[in-house]
Amino acid sequence: MKVLITVQDNNIAPRFDQTTEVIIADYDGGKPVGAPRTIILPHKSAEELSDLIVKEGIGCLICGGIEDNFYRFFHWKKIVVFDGIIGAHAEALQLAAAGALQPGQVLPSAKNEA
Questions:
Q1: 42 vs 59: CA distance, rounded Å
Q2: C-alpha 15: how far from chain center
């Protein structure tokens, strides 16, 4: 399964529609397949990011806040959405691969920064 994470610095981007950087990682049975890819988007656009997600065949989206219409679109496309995630993107990716990530989760990395 392909996972896409919206990124800002080393954390999950707080808003889906404002992200300009994403990481795409591929997993098979919870194990990484190849190295994750980082993609820098030319500008902020939720519509273009949504197109990228569909074209890449993403099965799981990890992000911060997301508008309801995009959330429903991804749900309709059978893409699992973990929204409202706060913390380091690497930690979120590990938890998702292990099947332990939950929507709205504040990760330990975020709690340590507070």
A1: 23
A2: 11
